[in-house]
Amino acid sequence: MRSIGLVPGAILVWLTMEKQSKEELKLLIERGLLVRAEELARNLGLEEEALHLRRKAIWQMAAANRNMPGTKKLADEYGFSKSELKGIFQEFMDSIQGKEEQRNLEPCYDQYSGEYLSFEQWMNQLFKRWEKIGNG
User: Fold this and answer.
1) pLDDT in tens, 40-72
2) Are 125 and 117 in contact (CB under 8 A)?
3) Distances 65 to 43, 108, 110, 119 between C-alpha atoms, Å
4) How high is the pLDDT of residue 103?
5) CA angle 127, 131, 134 (to 5 degrees)
6) Residue 135 reports pLDDT greater than 80
7) How much is the CA Rg of the chain, to the nearest whole Å?
8) CB-based burial of residue 66 (10 Å sphere; 0-12 exposed, 13-18 middle, 19+ buried)?
9) pLDDT of residue 108 exceeding 80
């Protein structure tokens, strides 16, 4: 039986690539690019980090962006049910601290209703329209 040896330097290249990927992950998180960060974490096999980033990404899509189709698409992609999503939103709302985070809950213009809705009102509209979102 013949053994296959590692090419000298291959381990070093692999370690360098892994370090660069983890640095890129840190940078994506710092920049608030959470959907891309979740994908990279998943590709790196960092399942716990990826789950944490999924929750943060969907919160960002909903609360900061108030994007109903994007929120539904991420929920579907990440495998979150409506009830899980409600729980995630409630956890984030309960943990809000500081003015910057509080801003996500304040009224914001909603293109579907033509009104300014608080996050809670927007969330109710999201779940009310859930089945119709993304179905043209």
Assistant:
1) 999 999 999 999 999 999 999 999 999 999 999
2) yes
3) 25, 10, 11, 11
4) 87
5) 105
6) no
7) 20
8) buried
9) yes
